[in-house]
Design brief:
With about 775 residues, this protein is α+β, with helices and mostly antiparallel strands. About 35% of the residues lie in helices and about 25% in strands. It has a six-stranded mixed beta sheet with strand order 12-11-10-9-13-16, sandwiched between helices. Strands 20-21-17-22-23-24 form a six-stranded antiparallel beta sheet. A hairpin with a 2-residue loop joins strand 23 (about 635-640) and strand 24 (about 640-650). Helix 12 packs across helix 14 and helix 12 (about 440-450) crosses helix 16. The protein starts with a strand and ends in a 13-residue tail after the last strand.
């Protein structure tokens, strides 16, 4: 039986004749293959002392199951029994019955496809064999781990529509093909009678672009979309809000016109599912294809922007945007162009598609997502997924160590101490060094063997264990997480050597997520002793590091999580200051190696690095207080001849402050660092503001953290402005509507906060 390799695009769960199967769509060198496994048993676990009661309950409800004693224990060292079912449906029925009777079930919420893959250590790529029932369709298949890098076909999608959702056009673009399907008829390119040729607009060319496909009406638009979409046969469909806007609208319009949206690779229809949590969100399911929203993907890659509009992100990343971007009148312009200048609208439509393609290429988003899947087993289109990634990596190892996973805490878990933040010493300084512990929390996990299995075994045999915090102790030999992190660390170092930024970023995000996962009540391996043993050890390390530095005659003026700020307080130049930084780095690392070896008989994985030299530095006070602030500072970073003004937590780098505040603060600090007078500059700016010369720079912009109706007791200015915008725009052609996550632009007037779109009173210059 021959074996092939592929990358898993999609996983599905099937029920046929009372049995459950796993179906996987894989991208291979020979095209996309649909691979269905043999029938798979569905399992959850119970403690052995509940076995008889469980069997009786299942029999009473005529639910067929097989109970099998296992060599697996709970973390409380109780022996367990596996309860096996032939189908997911029966397992769900049993879960409902047993839960109502107060029977504790373990691992009853793990999807069949996820368990199939993780228990075989299959992450992203798979080797498969089976019987080819039809071309590119395999049954009775078996999958095994492998490494395979796919060459995926991407297709960018964007729609243009009226304010009521009526489709005007659908744009499609790939690296080797592009098309806009447009309702209407092509122009003939004829000049109007009496119009000189020199006055003919550039848009009135003799022929419309050959990439425009013309159709008569909306049903024809949808049918042609299905034809062209299937002809191109993409693996991944990308776009901007492509799931919650474009696909949602396409599905609804297709349903309205009774057009079969058969775009699945098996001929099935696209299926839309509303989100249970948010009526504005949902999911699109297309057999054999993946849909990835560019906004979600960038956030997963930890990109941050003041706005995630396509125009803003394109300008920030590519240095270019749309030819015309009038947000306020965009719908009106689109409607006008659909009536009067369809080729112009088609170019606008296509440009959106192309910009998304270029953003994906520029950021190597697909490389990142593929690597993340190969590292963790997460689906390509999974948003976030830190807990799922940890479970995929850890659970099969936990089983092989003889344990079933614990359940999530019913109360969401107890909060663990946060990172160490030192009380700062405010002031204006010269010669400040910043020393950072490289990946402090992963280093603590590696050094002190902090691990769920290690905690279970350490508590069982505390006499030889490594002490943690809040009563924790960790086994010196039995653990998995320190080795997982060590392996990832080595891979990241190799990725850095090869300048593979996407791989390095994927590994960094994964490693840094482990602390948060262990401290999250949403993770089945949560234990406050785990997270506390990481953060409280971090507190201890930071405090001891500061003490050792001050023993050398230097002053520690601030510390935050893994960074220590050191004032040299003397006559230094850049070279001598940097030498002090390197000397402190080496000294502290040696001290930790010695201390950890002496006290714990362990090898230190802590690595302090001299990170930054500030020739000038300001640690401000809390507003209205003499106390130093936290997570807020500014400095003039010096690196050779290069100088860079750095702000942390101040108005300059916050998206919710006005442009004037940002410009003012940047100029003020630059003047202070350069030793220039500031009084005349401040007075002049105040005079300009009061004279109304800087009104365009007095706009605030803030995001709504929850729906408007949820703000009851405290109504902040941006919420008041959003409510006014909805009220004052009610009679407009395009009424404004705000939901959770929306941004509102507003100004402060003599009547308080008012939306920028509907200002009715003079600006309150004294406020500014």
């Amino acid at each position: 039986m021959s074996r092939s390799q592929g990358f898993i695009l999609q996983r599905q769960q099937l029920e046929q004749q009372g049995k459950s199967y796993c179906r996987f769509w894989l991208a291979t060198d020979k095209g996309t293959q649909c691979v269905t496994t043999e029938a798979q048993p569905v399992v959850f676990f119970i403690t052995q002392d509940n076995a008889e009661k469980v069997q009786a309950l299942l029999n009473a409800h005529r639910i067929t199951a097989q109970l099998k004693p296992l060599e697996l224990n709970t973390i409380d060292h109780q022996p367990t029994v596996g309860v096996y079912f032939s189908s997911v449906r029966r397992a769900y029925q049993a879960r409902s019955v047993l839960s109502e009777q107060g029977i504790t079930l373990y691992e009853d919420d793990i999807r069949l496809t996820d368990r199939y893959l993780m228990e075989r250590f299959i992450y992203g790529s798979a080797e498969f064999s089976g019987r080819e029932a039809r071309q590119n369709q395999w049954v009775d298949a078996k999958l095994a781990p492998t490494h395979f890098t796919p060459a995926l076909r991407l297709l960018s999608l964007d729609v243009e529509c009226s304010e009521r959702g009526e489709l005007y056009s659908i744009g499609l673009a790939a690296d080797d093909w592009q098309c806009v399907i447009m309702r209407g008829r092509p122009r003939r390119g004829q000049l109007r009678r009496g119009q000189p040729r020199r006055e003919q607009s550039a848009d009135a060319s003799e022929h419309d672009p050959d990439w425009i496909e013309w159709v008569d009406d909306e049903p024809a638009l949808l049918r042609r979309f299905v034809e062209l979409f299937n002809q191109y046969d993409a693996d991944v469909i990308i776009g901007w809000a492509v799931i919650t806007f474009d696909w949602r609208l396409i599905v609804r319009r297709a349903d309205m016109h009774n057009v079969s949206l058969s775009v699945g690779r098996d001929g099935s229809k696209a299926v839309w599912r509303d989100s249970r949590q948010d009526s504005h969100l949902g999911f699109i399911d297309i057999a054999g294809r993946v849909v990835i929203d560019g906004i979600d993907a960038l956030k997963t890659m930890t990109y941050q922007f003041d706005s995630f509009s396509l125009e803003f992100v394109a300008q920030a990343l590519l240095g270019k945007g749309k030819d015309t971007e009038d947000v306020k009148n965009r719908l009106a312009i689109i409607k006008h162009d659909f009536i009067h200048n369809k080729p112009k609208l088609a170019r606008y439509n296509l440009q959106d598609c192309v910009l998304v393609l270029e953003i994906f290429a520029h950021t190597r988003l697909m490389d990142f997502l593929i690597l993340r899947s190969q590292l963790t087993g997460l689906e390509l289109d999974r948003i976030g997924g830190s807990v799922a990634a940890f479970t995929n990596l850890y659970l099969p190892k936990f089983h092989r160590a003889g344990y079933v996973a614990p359940n999530r805490p019913d109360d969401g878990g107890l909060a663990s101490p946060g990172g160490y933040v030192m009380e700062s010493i405010p002031g204006l300084y010269q010669h400040v060094l910043v020393l950072d512990f490289k990946s402090l929390y992963p280093s603590i996990i590696r050094t002190f063997k902090i691990d769920p299995l290690g905690l279970v075994e350490g508590l069982a045999h505390p006499e030889q264990a490594i002490p943690g915090f809040k009563g924790a102790c960790f086994d010196r030999e039995k653990h998995f997480l320190p080795d997982i992190i060590t392996h990832l660390w080595q891979q990241r170092d190799e990725a850095k050597k090869q300048q593979d930024a996407a791989r390095s970023q994927a590994i960094k995000i994964l490693m840094n997520s482990f602390y948060g996962v262990l401290g999250s009540g949403g993770c089945r391996f949560y234990d406050t002793r785990l997270a506390s043993s990481i953060t409280m050890r971090g507190h201890q390390i930071m405090q001891q590091t500061a003490a050792w530095i001050e023993e050398q005659g230097y002053k520690v003026i601030y510390g935050d999580t893994d960074s220590t700020f050191v004032w040299l307080n003397g006559d230094y130049d850049q070279a001598s200051a940097r030498q002090v930084g390197l000397d402190l780095q080496n000294l502290i690392n040696q001290r930790w190696q010695q201390k950890i070896a002496d006290e714990f008989q362990l090898e230190s994985q802590l690595d302090l690095e001299f990170e930054t030299y500030f020739s000038q530095f300001v640690m401000p006070t809390i507003r209205g207080s003499e106390l130093g602030s936290k997570k807020r500072y500014a400095g003039l970073k010096q690196d050779g001849e290069r100088q860079q003004l750095v702000f942390k937590g101040l108005e300059t780098v916050r998206s919710d402050w006005t442009l004037l505040a940002k410009e003012f603060q940047t100029e003020l600090y630059q003047r202070v660092f350069d030793g220039q007078p500031v009084s005349d500059y401040i007075r002049g700016l105040i005079a300009q503001t009061r004279a109304g010369e800087l009104d365009d720079k007095l706009v605030y912009k803030k995001r709504l953290r929850q729906p408007l109706a949820k703000y009851t007791r405290n109504v902040p200015p941006h919420v008041k402005a959003a409510r006014l915008a909805e009220l004052r725009s009610a009679d407009d052609l395009e009424p404004q509507s705000f939901r959770r996550g929306s941004y509102i632009k507003y100004v402060i007037t003599t009547a308080g906060a008012e939306p920028l779109s509907h200002v009715a009173n003079p600006l309150d210059y004294e406020h500014y």
